[in-house]
From TrEMBL:
UniProt GO molecular function: oxidoreductase activity
Protein name: NmrA-like domain-containing protein
Keywords, sorted A to Z: NADP, Oxidoreductase, Signal
Segments forming domain NmrA-like: 33-281
Organism, as annotated: Gloeophyllum trabeum (strain ATCC 11539 / FP-39264 / Madison 617)
UniProt entry tagged with the keyword NADP: yes
Segment forming the signal sequence: 1-22
Origin superkingdom: Eukaryota
Length: 339
């Protein structure tokens, strides 16, 4: 039996709403779990990999095994996919579910008492003999900024704690998600044909398509098991790395209408955030993103791409220009990706 076939993977998360609000300065981003935002994007790829024999078994750890989407994953994956009910107040349920697992992929949300849940999960992973751990990152590479945010501090502490306890840790940073970020939440108003762009608009901004996140994640998991020395502890990925101005150009080319571009300076972005930060729950990241964009925190390295998908060997990433064609150059016209 090959290394790939001997691989058992677990995906774990919590079930929660994705966004409390889709307003530009009052949005909250927390990928919930196998049936939530990031979980719903990557899990089907792993289900197919299990069914096709790339991996021996996929375990879906969830607080609600009866959820229709979980049942559909199990049905689609056949004998190779199994759902495990877990209770964070009963750590033994996690330990039992993780026993025999090689790689643990977390898409746990940051709402509620997430620090406690992550600690329970990490304890269970160590007790059960998990070898590789993908913590719940799947977004901003917070190592690229020195600015303080409570969620970044918590994530960094968790990462270092997991490494100190002997786990191989791989954090995947996606930048922004193409299919979700071109909306009012990030200052893009297609109805008014106006974009509020943080910074000068010429800072490189890495974005990953939801269509590519699953394939990237699967490649990362397989390599972390088969060739762990090739996998860094921090892995930046992207499908496209243009600028906000180039992305606006791509939309204009398709729609045929010039976009009014208003630029939000770093200084003003900081003022806007400072004005509301004391009213925000610690996991709310949305109002902080314009600062990171303006200070060039999304200028991802190509190193992760060269490891996971060199020269597009395994799949061709989707570009913002291709997305523009799908939406006729008017992303989220009179609508929102977050309800």
């Amino acid at each position: 039996m090959s290394d790939c076939l001997a691989l058992t993977i677990a995906i774990v998360g919590t079930l929660a709403p994705l966004f409390a609000s889709c307003d530009y300065y009052n949005s909250t981003l927390h990928p919930p779990g196998p049936t939530g935002f990031i979980g719903s994007i990557i899990t089907p790829t792993f289900v197919k990999a299990a069914k096709d024999g790339e991996i021996a078994q996929l375990r879906l750890l969830t607080t609600d095994v009866k959820k229709p989407k979980i049942q559909k994953y199990v049905e689609d994956g056949g004998e190779q996919v199994e759902a495990f009910g877990i209770n964070y107040d009963q750590p033994s349920t996690l330990e039992d579910a993780l026993r025999g697992v090689n790689v643990l992929v977390s898409v746990m949300g940051a709402e509620g008492d997430y620090s406690k849940r992550k600690t329970v999960l990490l304890d269970a992973a160590c007790q059960s003999g998990v070898e590789v751990y993908f913590p719940s990152e799947w977004g901003t590479n917070h190592n690229r900024t020195k600015r303080y945010h409570p969620i970044f501090e918590a994530k960094s502490h968790h990462h270092h704690d997991a490494e100190a306890r002997g786990l191989k840790v791989v954090a995947v940073y996606t930048g922004l998600i193409i299919e979700f970020c071109f909306c009012k939440w990030f200052g893009v108003d297609s109805a008014k044909n106006t974009w509020v762009i943080p910074g000068t608009g010429n800072e490189p901004c890495a974005m990953t398509s939801s269509a590519d996140l699953g394939p990237y994640s699967l490649r990362a998991v397989l390599l972390s098991h088969n060739e762990p020395d090739r996998m860094p502890s921090q892995l930046e990925i992207y499908s496209d790395k243009g600028t906000w101005n180039s992305y606006a150009d791509a939309m204009e080319k398709v729609s045929g209408n010039p976009i009014r571009r208003e630029y939000l300076s770093l200084e003003q972005a900081v003022k806007n955030y400072d004005a509301v930060k004391d009213t925000l729950p610690p996991h709310m990241l949305g109002p902080f993103l314009p600062i990171l964009t303006a200070e060039n925190a999304f200028d991802h390295s190509e190193d992760g791409i060269k490891v996971l998908n060199p020269d597009h060997k395994f799949f061709k990433p989707k570009t913002v220009a291709e997305y523009a064609l799908e939406v006729d150059g008017k992303p989220w016209l009179n609508s929102s990706p977050f309800g």
